[in-house]
Amino acid sequence: MAAKNREWLSWIKVIVISAILALGIRTFLFTPIIVDGPSMLPTLENGDHLIVNKLNYTIGQPERFDIVVFHATQKRDYIKRVIGLPGEHISYQNEILYVDGTPVAEPFIRERVTSLPAGSHYTHDFTLENMPGGYEKIPEGYVLVLGDNRTNSTDSRMIGLIPIDQIVGEAQLIYWPLPHFGLTT
User: Fold this and answer.
1) What is the pTM of this model?
2) By C-alpha distance, which of 91, 92, 60, 39 is closest to 167?
3) Which DSSP string corresponds to the chain?
4) Which of 71, 110, 111, 160 could form a disulfide with 132 if both were Cys (CB 3.0 to 4.6 A apart)?
5) Which residues are catalytic?
6) What would the CATH number be for the domain defined by 31-183?
7) Contact, 93 vs 87, CB < 8 A?
8) What digits encode the pLDDT tens for the residues 122-149?
């Protein structure tokens, strides 16, 4: 009987340690998220399951074109792409992103922009000054984010700049559905 009790105690220890490790990994390193809506098309589709790396921004800062998850409200997280970094001026004119007056290519939307019918817009012209807050430069501790589906995305153009401390992490891996499996770009 004592051997059976030791075996049960051993199993309980394994389960408790495994649960603590899983909770620690999810809390501090990685967390899953499901894309809800079309705002990141064509890069991410509604229903894609992703792994978010929470460690990247604990030891570093967001970089241009990172796909990030952030707390948009107390109850809702959004997933968008970082376009503007602290200290930069951002504007769009004639489907071209300008960072501090220099054009910057966006390869992840090139196909959509080049396939537009004449007179159509994928990203309507705007400047940082026209956005909520009316900033001339992005302040320290903030980033400007846009969805890849510029015609159907609630992003910095509407909600303003995003505090870096509200970023959960970087979405790096699509794991479901299997045909979409791979790194985000």
Assistant:
1) 0.81
2) 60
3) -HHHHHHHHHHHHHHHHHHHHHHHHHHHTEEEEE--SSTTTTTS-TT-EEEEESSHHHHS---TT-EEEEESSSS-EEEEEEEE-TT--EEEETTEEEETTEEE--TTTHHHHHTPPTT--SS--EEGGGSTT--SSPPTTEEEEE-SSTTS--SHHHH--EEGGGEEEEEEEEEESGGG-EE--
4) 160
5) 39, 80
6) 2.10.109.10
7) no
8) 888 899 999 888 899 999 999 999 999 9
